[in-house]
Amino acid sequence: xxxxAAVSAKIPExxxxxxxxxxxxxxxxxxxxxxxLEKLQSIPRPNKIFELEQRITKxxxxxxxxxxxxxxxxxxxxxxxxxxxxxxxxxxxxRKIVNHLLHYRGATxxxxxxxxxxxxxxxxxxxxxIQKRSKKQLGKSIxxxxxxxxxxxxxxWWLSEELxxx
Length: 166
Known about the structure:
The protein is mainly α. The chain has helices at residues 13-22, 28-41, 46-72, 92-104, 109-116, 120-138, and strands at residues 106-107, 143-150, 153-159. It is 55% helix and 10% strand.
């Protein structure tokens, strides 16, 4: 320690009396300094926490890439009915969208908007987010857009039947 700086702290009177009783007068400053150093050593530095967060994010991204490649190679397969589509929902609107798709097997954004009473663009954005989240976590999306005609519907969203629980 090269330079010392003065610190002022207000402590309860009882604590001060205990300090006076236990620590001799000439050693109180060094006692308080050592106590602060001891406490600081138990708290991780913010830059270390940031580094750890970055490493975890990178690991998650790498793991999702590995899963994606395994799915493409058909090494990692999903048993039918093992994935809960509600796991990718973040709120009630997402859950209502997934419930509607589960019940009707597929729907256009307009049908979903009318059924749920919300904006069609909100539905589209939510479907894209569910698609992105599921693809990131599983390597394969649980909702898919089909621009052609399928089961009497054109330009509709469908749940991926091979992944979703029955």
